Amino acid sequence: MAGLGQMGHGMAKNIRQKISSDSTVVVYDINHAALEQFVNDFSSHGPIIAAGSPKEVAELADIVMTSVPAARHVKDVFLNPQTGLLAAQRQPPNKKILFMELSTIDAAASTKVAEAVMENDLGDFVDAPCSGGAMGAEAGTLSFMIGCPIRLYPQVLKICKLIGKESSIFRCGDLGAGLKTKVLNNYLSALTALATAETINIGIRGGLDPKKLNEIINASSGQNFNSSVNNPVPGLTPANPASHGYRGGFSIELCLGVLELAVKAAEDLGAKTVLAKPMLEAYTEASRDERFKGKDSKVIYQYLARPNGEPIPEAQ
């Protein structure tokens, strides 16, 4: 596993805990402290090797999974001529590797990396972006949207079942289809998060009890994943980042990056949108606010509810 951030940590943890104790897990992260901590925390479940570079991961592993923040990081992890995965000296030289790229990036960047893998005859490349956030990664309940040849899907499914729910693992089509699907999923999720935040903010300002309002929404036609599982309003879904100072989760900056990909895809395809522009403007403004930098994207509620910076009490 290359990448032990908010998503990669949970995935690597579940893999180490669920596979045979005779199998070795190779991990790498640019944050050496996180790398050492992971080895200390989970080596009791079986051998873990802390690699010094992505190149070393590919030299030691038969299956390489990558989870990093953005396209530029994916390109560096794969294509860096000194330290990248594709610079690996394979033993034996004809060893084939299954590369599973789990990051949410644009399909064009992923295709460029996939072509490099195939041109170098290194093995197979699969785009397998996931949904469920850091909570889902830690719990092993992620959803996967997979783009790969059908011949690879049984092997990919077996791996994804270690870190996701089988009922939420989908082959979307050939290479690139997983990423295209994931970008649209994030687009809709951001829309519903913004709509949920707006709705409950209106209710609070109108004197309604936010918990009762949300309970009714979740029993009615307004129910959505963000109202019931990952609510942007502190206190309404106590386990999620919004109820913990918006720490962890899917950052506002990463969310904005994916929304930009989705809006560009719509424009390139000539698909008419009504909600895309105002949503993108809202997330752009929120991401530029110093109060929200690095926080979970559900902080969009704080952007709406307290524009002048006053604190937000949790729902009682």
From TrEMBL:
SUPFAM superfamilies: 6-phosphogluconate dehydrogenase C-terminal domain-like (SSF48179), NAD(P)-binding Rossmann-fold domains (SSF51735)
TM segment ranges: none
Domain 6-phosphogluconate dehydrogenase NADP-binding: 2-166
Highest taxon above the source species: Eukaryota
InterPro entries: 6-PGluconate_DH-like_C_sf, 6PGD_dom2, 6PGDH_NADP-bd, HIBADH-like_NADP-bd, HIBADH-related, NAD(P)-bd_dom_sf
Active-site feature positions: 182
Pfam family, one: NAD_binding_11
Entry GO MF terms: 3-hydroxyisobutyrate dehydrogenase activity; NAD binding; NADP binding
Known pathway: Amino-acid degradation; L-valine degradation
The enzyme's E.C. designation: 1.1.1.31
Enzyme class: oxidoreductase
Domain 3-hydroxyisobutyrate dehydrogenase-like NAD-binding: 176-302
Reaction(s) the record says it catalyses: 3-hydroxy-2-methylpropanoate + NAD(+) = 2-methyl-3-oxopropanoate + NADH + H(+)
Protein's GO biological process: L-valine catabolic process
GO cellular component annotations of the record: mitochondrion
Family named by the database record: Belongs to the HIBADH-related family. 3-hydroxyisobutyrate dehydrogenase subfamily.
Name of the protein described by the UniProt record: 3-hydroxyisobutyrate dehydrogenase
Species of provenance: Cladonia borealis
